[in-house]
Design a protein that fits this description.
With 124 residues, the chain is an all-alpha fold. It is built from eight helices and no strands. The protein is globular, with a radius of gyration of 14 Å.
Length: 124
């Protein structure tokens, strides 16, 4: 059974139908899961749908970015909230050794860093 999110992800040329048939946590050539791709495209409906289907919130792609790292990098506060509420690990580090909070600070997404601290995910 194909879901609307699968149709969306097929449209990105990032996943083949065969890969999507392998489940919600299948990966593309750079080891990104559908959830990471949906976060990169900032499609909150797709992210919520994938989470409901049991997507791995802490899967890390080729460069160690988790879905939360992607949301932080994109500067999308709504997406960050969705992932944190769903239980994404805010202490996970990417290949550069940065947590999502550290990434927010290092890439100038200070509104995201402030949001995370205000929600109790890290210190000021």
């Amino acid at each position: 059974m194909k879901h609307a999110v699968h149709e969306f992800l097929l449209g990105t040329d990032s996943f083949t139908e065969e890969q999507l048939g392998q489940g919600v946590n299948c990966t593309n050539l750079v080891q990104d899961s559908p959830l990471i791709v949906a976060c990169n495209y900032q499609i909150i409906d797709a992210v919520q749908h994938l989470i409901a289907l049991g997507a791995d919130l802490n899967w890390q792609g080729e460069f160690g970015f988790s879905p939360l790292h992607c949301a932080v990098y994109r500067g999308n506060s709504d997406l960050v909230r969705v992932l944190l509420r769903a239980g994404a690990d805010w202490t996970i580090t990417d290949h550069a050794g940065e947590t999502p909070l550290e990434l927010a600070r290092s890439c100038g997404k200070l509104h995201i860093a402030d949001l995370m601290v205000s929600l109790g995910y890290g210190a000021a």
